[in-house]
Write a structure and sequence with these properties.
mainly beta; five-stranded antiparallel beta sheet
Length: about 80
Amino acid sequence: MNLELYQRGVLTVDQPQHNLKKGDIATVVDMVPHPAGGENGYILEVFNAKGESIAVITLPQSQVEPIPDNALLSVRLLVA
């Protein structure tokens, strides 16, 4: 299922280059078509628990899914 613009989604794989982990939540701020006809992607903004923007990343759509209805939010420390 594809996400809509400004919808929040869950990362499905760790993103160590961005210091993000599977299960982290990000907001879709744009959608980008693959330039060679491959998998389309999302531009995502990641916020800390206080709502401050900490990263903007681009991922393939397959690496982000909608937040499940039975999900529970938690807090983890961001280690630089």
